[in-house]
Amino acid sequence: MSAQMRAVSQRRYGGPDVLEVVTTGRPTPGPGQALVRVHAAGVNPADWKIRSGTVRRFGEPPITLGLDLCGVVEAVGEQVTRFRPGDAVYGCAFPPHGAYAEYVVVPVEALAARPASIDDIHAAALPVTALTAWQALVRVADVRTGQRVLVHAAAGGIGHLAVQIAKARGAHVIGTARENKHAFLRGLGADELVDYTTADFAAAVRDVDVVLDPIGGDYGPRSLDTLAPGGILIDVRGTGPDRTAVREQASARGVRFVEFGFTPSGVDLESVTDLVERGSLRAAVEHVLPLEDAAKAHELSETNRMKGKAVLTLER
After folding, report:
1. Helix, coil or strand: residue 211
2. Which CATH code fits 129-259?
């Protein structure tokens, strides 16, 4: 095996043009880690936010992006018994040594066996967005049969998975999306849809138990109007902009507000895998591009107009 590998790196913050393919050293797994040969890497909004410098929690460049991955275990470090070389896996990596690379070292607790019923591309589209949706709806909101769930940006990476997860939990699912995406969302199980470009969801929707919001801004305060007493608004953008106002408004109305960021978890990914294998969850992949076209993938992702995800593939 060569000691070198290709990776997409950036030497400064900026637009998609800062991304470049470089040759660098192949990493070695330490205790509790696995070296994964990456077959596909999902592209998330977090990637271009890190690339641009909007999010700087992973330090200064040089940085290799990529949170989502699917591939095969090449080697394992000490104390690893859960996986062995040759196992097909999917899961989460983190910059500055992310998944836009031929090889990546990942803590084994952030990996799960790849669902057998789907290919590498669709598996790579799942980890971050599926964990965000699943943990928010199941671990935080405990969505149950008969509840009403409102999903904003329902056709997006998080949203289209949240629609399916809420539906699998027995909820009545309402989504906000442009009208040209309604047929796609009905196919995923959405019960009601609101075209936010022609209608005010805050006026059209009432008595909701759970709102999942990946947008923020004025969507937070407006979503409070849709909630039933005791309902919950979950902002899934993680830490970031100050949400003091919406938190105070929620408290005054007797509803809950949660600022949520996903946790990498192979155990929770196994629950996602179970939904996939049952046919209750599938990732939509609108664009598949080679690793060398990472900049193009970012341009597409930044439009916020995709159905589902973009995925980068690597030669095998």
Report:
1. strand
2. 3.40.50.720
250 neighbors 224 (Cβ within 8 angstroms): yes
CB burial of residue 181 (10 Å; 0-12, 13-18, 19+): buried
Cα 147 to Cα 228: distance, rounded to the nearest angstrom: 11
Q: 239 falls in which pLDDT band (50, 70, 90)?
A: low
CATH of 4-126+283-313, one of 3.40.50.300, 3.10.20.810, 3.90.180.10, 3.30.70.580: 3.90.180.10
Dump pLDDT digits (tens) for 93-149.
Answer: 999 999 999 999 999 999 999 999 999 999 999 999 999 999 999 999 999 999 999
Q: Are 65 and 38 in contact (CB under 8 A)?
A: no
Confidence at 305, pLDDT banded by 50, 70, 90 = confident
DSSP 3-state of 218: coil
**142: its two tokens:** 């405990």
Where in the chain is CATH 3.40.50.720? 129-259
